[in-house]
Structure formats: C-alpha cells, structure tokens
Fold this sequence. Notes:
The complex is a heterodimer of chains A (390) and B (352).
Chain A: H1 2-26, H2 96-120, H3 124-148, H4 167-188, H5 198-234, H6 239-243, H7 248-267, H8 274-296, H9 303-306, H10 308-330, H11 335-365, H12 368-389
Helix pairs in contact in A: 2-3, 2-5, 2-7, 2-11, 3-4, 3-7, 4-5, 5-7, 7-8, 7-11, 8-10, 10-11
Chain B: H1 12-15, E1 25-30, H2 39-48, E2 74-81, H3 106-109, H4 132-139, E3 167-174, H5 182-186, E4 192-194, E5 200-202, H6 213-216, E6 223-224, E7 231-232, H7 238-241, H8 248-252, E8 258-262, H9 263-279, E9 286-288, E10 301-305, H10 325-348
Parallel strand pairs in B: 1-10
Antiparallel strand pairs in B: 1-8, 2-3, 4-5, 6-7, 9-10
Amino acid sequence: MSATSDRLGEDYGERDDRGRPATEAERPGGLGERPPAGRPGSGLARDEAPGGPVRDGTSRRGGRKGGGRGDRPMVPPASFGSYYGKPIVKAPVWHHDIAAYLFTGGLAAGSSLLAAAGDLSGRPALGRAGRLAALGAVTASAYFLIHDLGRPARFHHMLRVAKPTSPMSVGTWVLTAFGPAAGVAAIAEGAPLLPERGVLGLVRRLLPPLGAAGQVGAALTAPALATYTAVLLSDTSTPSWHAAYEELPFVFAGSALASGAAVGLLAAPCDQAGPARRMAVCGAALELYGAHRVETTKGLLSEPYRTGRAGRLLRAGRALTAAGVAGALLGRRSRVASALSGLSLLAASLATRFGIFEGGMASAKDPKYVVVPQRERLQRRAESGDAGGS
Amino acid sequence: MPSNSLYGPLDPAPDAGYTDAPPRMGFFTDTSVCIGCKACEVACKEWNGVPDDGFNLLGMSYDNTGGLTANSWRHVAFIEQPRASSGAGTDTPGAFAGTPAGPSASAHSAVVAASAGQDTGTDPGVPPAVDALAAAGTVAPPGPQFLGMPGHDLPGRIPDAPRTDFRWLMMSNVCKHCTHAGCLDVCPTGALFRTEFGTVVVQEDICNGCGYCIPACPYGVIDQRQGDGRAWKCTMCYDRIGDGLTPACAKACPTESIQYGELSELRERAATRVAALHEQGVGEARLYGHDENDGVGGDGAFFLLLDEPEVYGLPPDPVVPTKNLPAMWRRAGLAALTMAAAVVVAAAGRRR
Lengths: 390, 352
C-alpha cells in the first residue's frame, strides 16, 4: 500500500511540475492575465492539434502507452483530466466589494472591541476612537454588502428568514444586531455637544446610558461579526476557501483585532495606547499563525495563496503586520511612530483580506484544484477500502 | 433536526417538511445513446423562456454552448478522444467495436482561433473564436482537408478507409437537484426551496442576487445572469411536472438519452442498463451521481458515463460544503472566544 501511495504521490508531483505550464497555457481566459490560448484546454487529447498533441484527460492513469509519438512536438502531460481545461466549480460572482467588506466588517468589530478594552481599562480616548471607527466601518460595510447584490433594492429580502445553514443569513442578523448598537454607542459620544436645556437637553441626558448599553451590545456581537465571514467563505465549494475552514476564523479574528488596535494607535495619545499595543500583538500573532497554516498545510490547495496576486498580497500583509507590531512596540514613546504602525496594521489587514479573497477566486478558476484533491480522496478511500477488504 | 439533514442518505422532500410528498422525481441521462443533437438545450430555452447565451463559435468541438450558465440550463458536452487501440483492427473495444469509423475528423476542423470577443452576458469561461475557418486556413497543411461536410458515400463503404482510434462522447449536462444541495443550504433569502418532488428551484421574485449559491454548488451549475442580477438554473420544469407532464428536455430527446421519472425506478433502470453495457464489453460504462452514500446524498439527476467524470467537466468526488458546517461554526466560535480573551488581556495590562 505504501508503494501505491508513493507512486501516486510521485505521479501527481511529477506531472504537476511538468504539466503546469501546459495547463495554464491551455486554460482559456484563465486568470485574465494571459491572452486566450490557441487551443482549448486539456479536456481532450487532440491528436493533430496545431501545437502538438495534448495528452491529458483521456488517459489519466500512470504510464500511458502510445501517448507520445517521437516525431511530434510534445506538450507535457497535464496532471488531471478536464473538459477543455474549463473550470468545474463556478468562481464566486462577488466583486471586490466583498473583499473590502471583509476588511471593514473586521475593522468595525475590532474597533468596537478596542473601545471595550478602553472602557474596561479607563482610557477614554480609546473608547471614543473605537466607537467612532466602528460606526464608520459598519456603515461602509452596509454599503459594500448592498452594492454587491445583483438586486440591491431587494436587500431586505435577507430579513425574510433566519437560517443557521446559511452563514450569510447568520451574518445578516449579526450585523443587524451590531450595527444599531455600535451606532448608538458612537452617537452617544456627541452628547456633551448638545445644549443642556429643552428637548435636546433630555436627549443629552438619555444618550449616555443608551450609548453604554449599545457599547455592551456591540462588544458582545463583535467577535461573531469578525469570525462569521470566515465561515461565509469556507462554506462554499471554492476549493482553497473550503480547505482552510479550520484556520480562516483565526486569520480573520487576528486581522480584525489588529485593525481595531490600529485605530487606537492612530487616535489615542501614547499614554493611553497601551491596550491597543497589546491588542495589536495578540491580533498579529493570530493572523500570522493562521495565515501561515493556510499557506502551508493544505497541500495543492495552499498553492493559490502563495502564487499570483493572492501570494503577493499575503506576503505584503505579513510584512506590514510585522512592521506594524514592531513599530507599535518599539515606538511606544513616539506619537508619529505609533500612528505609522497603526497605518501599517490597517494596510496589513486590508492586504490579508484581499489576499484570501483572491486566493479562493484563483482556486475556483483552475479545474486542477477541484479534480486533483478529489482524485486523491477517491484514491485514499479505495486504498483504505482495499486494506479493509484484504 | 432530523438525522442526516446535512449529509448522508435522505429523502429530501419529507425532510423539508412535506407531508404526503409525491415520489421523488429525477432525470437519468444515459450518455451512451446521446447523439449530441442539442434538442434538449433548445426545448429548455423554448419552454422556460431562457435568453440566448450569445451566438459564438467557441472553437471546441461542436460545443458552442460552453457550459451550464444562467442562460443554459442544459448543456451538451462534446468530447473528442483518440483512444488507444486495444483490439485487433478495431477501435475502442465494446461500444464502438464494429462501428464504422472513417478518417479522424479532429485534425483541422477543430482548429481553434480563440481570441477575446465581445462579452455575451453569462460567460461560460470560454472566449469565442473570431473566425474559425480563417484560422483553420492558416495552419492547414497541403492536401485535402476535412471541412465538416457530410460524405457522399455511406460510412465504411470505402474499402481503404483506415480505422482510427477515435471516439466522440456526448453528454447532456444539467442541474443535479442534489439530495443535499449546497445552493439551497446557503441561500440567505429563502429564494431557493425544495419542491414536493425533491427538486431544487429558485423563486425569481425572492432572489436578490447575493450570489452565495454560485460558489456553494459543488458542480458549478447555478449562475448569476448578467444584466439581471439574479441566480438561475434548471427547475426540472416545475411548472410541467406538477401537471404530470415530462420536462421539456426529456420530452424533446429523440434517443431517450434523457429519461424522466420516479428516481427509484430510474435507478433500477440505470443499473440494468450499465449491467447490459458491461455484458456487451463496454467496461468503461459507469453511473455517476446515483449513489445516495456519495458526498451530496445522491443526485436527483444522475448519469451514465463512458469515461471519468472530469472528462465531462464533472467533479470526480463532489461533497456538499455544508457537510463541514458544524465544524466551521465550532472553529469560528473558538476564534471568537479567543478574540474576547485577547480584549481582556489588552485591557488588563498595567496602567502606564
């Protein structure tokens, strides 16, 4: 059995290395970066196609005899069969609105938690900055989410049902709870600006307790808001998102904490920013650990996170996170250094979210990421079945 | 929640709450008798009023539809295969043994002149060819070419016609109406619903185009219609079957490659058919989507294939993403608790 699995691994590895250029060249309209190739994909082995024969999907098993003819130029065999190299699963139709929402939703949650940390430790500057940032970010989130709908005027149809099998439905209700709470909490910050008499004076007296209640509600729902988006992406057939379901919540939780901490580093004076610094360290640690796992432990399905645009974004995110944490810790006496670290952490969170988003998109557009892992799964099942039977 | 609601064998209509549900209905698509006429595609468009998908030459075989999209609820796949010969003087043993096979048609008729064309709305992922004939001319070697014209003699009549190792596979693909449908599980508006026949249908007056069902489908079936914004897919002609009629595609199929009926009966029929094919030496015949123990709990529309599923553009081992949803929520809960702990740590530090 070990011999069989060795051979299988070698087979895939070898064909993967040699087959990848052919696969990418053949993929029509692959990632949008290549001009369409002159030949349809690897779904069929066409004997006399102009570029030489494409050997592939018709004979996927090991040594394919008669596949190569010495007198013809030979495109290296692809590692899997497919229908003209066309994608099997459909890539999400979501635009960058959704990637941006991953960031703003996380920022809203992180800011709300920063405000909670500020309130708990008696640092009013953190509380105020966190609440205002949370309201801004959650408003942007609502815009991005509604703008991305195919029928934006029907956004309220989300409120027809509450469905635990749909992470989007769960998220809708989490946002519905978080948004107004965070809004009241932020608006209450403006109470001292109101006159002391009359109707507005009454509002001035009512707002602070309402705001405090809102802050509690927002802080309690914020962790759900920051992590449900990971389930939203994982609960799809997009290969690299689904494969990462164990770590994505931690990546997103860390990213949200780091971006919330960044708000504190940007807005609070140095002597009040202590909780923000500690939050930045915790968030960055979670984010870096999770992203590292996603990029290294998923086999072939980690590849989309290391290559192309997603790879560049995630590498940039990692560098910016490291720079931000270093700046936050080393520059704790400098207002400018703290603010720069905050900016770096915000940019890191943005890059990480877009990187994860793009990685999933890339994995859906190449049938390799659907077929090869599923074939390996079938092979493993067959082997364990054989072992059980004999 | 009843057992197996997310995964495993299940009768979906009672699980969805129907009491007294009629038998589960389905499609059995037997690709071994498909002739690629595309009557199913046309009948589907006619009955359901589905817009055109653009009139493109995709430059791949006779498939100019490209795939299942919001505007193509049936899709006939064409696969041209030079199969290695394993019998004495015959091509693929079994189904095609003894069948006349002329010179390979694949050579130059199928040259692709792919180039970016105009956007046609729902994009099956294949750029349209600009001018396949002109492109064919640029690479054609001297000598006669096969231009796709029918011959003037009966196939196989010419004594010198060499036998070639070549076969065509044709398959009419469609929504699988899964027992555990990823699209239905994740729909946040309730636009997708389970019918009393066990099929899965989108309510067009509810769908708000959130697009979540599209990546959820393990088969890549459901799709968003551009310019419309909503998600569309095969309804198994919900408006026909409720009246006891056959869905348009099955009604139009001239070879009964598409068979419609009670799923349990179709499964028996398919088992008989595959056994018969094996007996005739077509060892490669296999069923796809018939097994209720598979990753989606069995398909309401299943297939008899003559090659591996991925050759037809089907996933070899599809699993509904919701299978792992409880584990996902647990991980998210753990991450959320970690966040709360981080906030406590952040707030508890000493005051400087």
